[in-house]
From TrEMBL:
It comes from the Bacteria. Keywords: Cell inner membrane, Cell membrane, Membrane, Transmembrane, Transmembrane helix, Transport. Its main location: membrane. InterPro entries: DctQ, TRAP_DctQ. It comes from Bosea spartocytisi. Residues 27-157 form the Tripartite ATP-independent periplasmic transporters DctQ component domain. Belongs to the TRAP transporter small permease family. The chain crosses the membrane at residues 12-32, 44-67, 87-110, 130-149. Signal peptide: none annotated. This is TRAP transporter small permease protein. It is found in: Cell inner membrane.
Length: 180
């Protein structure tokens, strides 16, 4: 991917942008609430609900981009103890387990989403329907699943290439910076 904005829609990047907007809203709303408390002894009604809503948005909307960049928390316990081939297999197994877990989350979220929509649940202080939050989480999980599927596909393609036939430079982890 080059540094320019592409002509095609990138759902992971779009969700990350929405998560960043939610973070900015949370930041500024909280600052105004604290300022209102200090200056006028009047807090803004619904601050707790807004922080809860935006916190959910920040966490889940950033998830697909974290999967794509491989920036999740990892414990590199076996990386130096096994061969690169075995490590690749272990990574692939981890990606498949991640895919299964995301699928499980997606499947188990359908019923609460349907119930929240059916009963019209909303936050107590702000008129934010709960089903919209659950739908947003569902969307972020589906995009995350697609990102993980793409990662699995590229790992399988790389594993099927004959040795020495690499077409791309190997992916570096963040802590393994390339030296000139």
């Amino acid at each position: 991917m080059n540094g320019r904005a592409g002509s095609r829609l990138d759902p992971a990047r779009l969700l990350t942008l929405c998560g960043a907007i939610a973070l900015a809203v949370m930041l500024f709303w909280t600052m105004f609430d604290i300022g209102g408390r200090l200056a006028f002894n009047r807090p803004i009604h619904g601050t707790l609900d807004l922080v809860e809503v935006t916190l959910v948005l920040v966490a889940f909307l950033a998830l697909p981009e974290c999967f794509r960049r491989d920036e999740l928390i990892k414990v590199d316990l076996f990386d130096t103890m096994v061969s690169p081939r075995t490590l690749g297999r272990m990574t692939l197994i981890g990606e498949i387990a991640t895919l299964a877990f995301l699928g499980l989350l997606i499947a188990t979220l359908w019923q609460p989403l349907a119930d929240a929509y059916r009963f019209g649940d909303q936050k107590p202080d702000l008129p934010v329907p709960i089903w919209t939050l659950l739908l947003t989480i569902e969307l972020a999980l589906v995009v995350s699943m697609l990102v993980v599927l793409r990662r699995i596909g590229s790992q399988i393609r790389a594993a099927l290439q004959p040795p020495g036939a690499e077409t791309q430079a190997p992916t570096l982890h963040r802590h393994e910076e390339a030296t000139p």
